[in-house]
User: What shape does this take?
Amino acid sequence: MSRNVSVSSRRRFLVGAAGAVGGGALGVLGLPGTAVAAAAATGTVYIASDSTAQTYNSRYYPQAGWGQKLSSFLTSNITVANHAIGGRSSRSFIEQGRLAAIHQVIRAGDYLFVQFGHNDATVSNPERYTSPADYKEYLRNDYIRATRARGATPVVVTPVSRRSYNASTGKFNVSFPAYVDAAKAVAREEGAPLVDLSAASRVYLDGVGIEGSKAIFLWLAAGQYPNFPNGVQDNTHFQERGAVEMARLVSRAVAGLGLPISGEVVPGVR
Assistant: This one.
C-alpha cells in the first residue's frame, strides 16, 4: 500500500474514532471562542503540541512549557486554551481524539497553534513515530484544512530547539531539521501563517551561550528544588525562565504575522 493511501485510510478511521470519543470528557477540554469584534481581535488560541508547550502543575515546578506562559504576552481579549500534552506526536494527538476535542469547540475568529516534531522523530517508539512525509500530510489535512473548515485560523509553529550544540563553534544545532523543513513547506504550500520557533529559539540560545542555556532548560542541581531532589539535566524541557522566553519568541513572531491577533500582542513584546 502506498504511503498516501495509507495516510488517507488511517485518517478516515481516525475521524470516525475521534468523533466517537468527542462526546465524552475530551469534548469539554477546550474553552469556547468569542466573536471577532470590529475594534479588537477577541477569541481563543488553542494549542496542539507536546511537553515543550504543556502546562505543568505545581508538583513539577520549576518545569514549564511555552504554552503555559503565552497568555502573559497577549491582551485580555485573547484566551489561551493549552491542549499540549507530553509524549504526543502529530499523529498520536489525532489518534487519541485530542484534535477532535479542539475542533468540537473552536469557533470562527479563534486560532490553532500547532507545534510537533519532537515525538514524531522518535523512530524507536511506534506509538509516536511519524515520518516527515506523513507529518506534513497530517499538518496539511488535519490541522490546517480541517481547522479552516471551522472558520478558525491555523498557525504552524516549527519545533522549538533542544539544548543541542556544536562544541567546536559554540552554536546551537537545528533540532529535527526534517520536521522543520516539512512544517515550513506545508505552511508555504497552504498559505498558512508560520512561526519559525526553531530559528528564533536557536538565535536566542546562541545569544545566551552553552552555559547560559542551562538556566533555560531543566538543568537543576540536587537539592535546588523540592520537586527534583536529585537534580536533573534535561536538554529538551524548560524551566520557568525558558518557558517564558520561548513564549515571548512565539508572541513576537505572531505580532509580525499581520493577523487580527497580531495587534493583541502586548506592546512591550513587539
In short: Confidence is low (pLDDT under 50) at residues 1-38. The chain is about 35% helix and 15% strand. Strands lie at 43-48, 63-64, 78-82, 111-114, 153-157, 194-195, 217-220, 232-239.
